[in-house]
Amino acid sequence: MPVERSPAWYHVEVLERRCPVGAVRAVYCGTNSFLSMAIMAGLAYATHAPFIFPSLGPTAFLLFFSPRSANASPYNTLVGHLIGLCSGYFALVVTGLTSAPPDLEHVTGERVLAAAIALGLTCGLMPLLRAAHPPAGATTLIIALGLLRSPEDLAIMSAAVLVIVAQGLVINRFAGIPYPLWKPAPDA
């Protein structure tokens, strides 16, 4: 007869049986989001590269507040941000703004068009590819507004998304959460 192993004390569901659910989720989400941004900021500090950018904040929130939701799956997160990156850069190319510095105080017609094209493409392609990840809407605007726009910046942004997804996978699995390896679970 196999010996039944008790669940690890650090598993979220075990903690939720012992403590208020809201408190456990708040501490879990807050602590892991803090850790994510500390890692990204540390990478940015060490490399002087844009490993931290605004849309990673909501991505961290999704990964640790609702890890079983489709929006937080590795597929949706990676593909969603990739769509945002490509759409934002496409909008810069089409409007001729690939080398124009950002100027949010004197927005031009080209910049308005770039932002509209980028967000429209991102919001249209994510459902088409079944890769909804709302923070990708911010990623595409970061690029279309020229805040990060070089191919090197986009490569670093992609690497940052890979790092945060890997972190989410490791931490959520360690915490006993059945976080998907790629696609969202059918019941998510």
TrEMBL record:
**What highest taxon heads this organism's lineage?**
Bacteria
What's in the keyword line of the UniProt record? Membrane, Transmembrane, Transmembrane helix
Annotated TM spans: 43-66, 78-100, 112-133, 154-175
Q: What is this protein called?
A: CBS-domain-containing membrane protein
**Which Pfam families does this one have?**
TM_HPP (PF04982)
Q: PANTHER family, from UniProt?
A: TRANSMEMBRANE PROTEIN DDB_G0269096-RELATED
In what residue span(s) does the HPP transmembrane region domain sit? Answer: 25-180
Recall the taxonomic lineage recorded for the source organism: Bacteria, Bacillati, Actinomycetota, Actinomycetes, Streptosporangiales
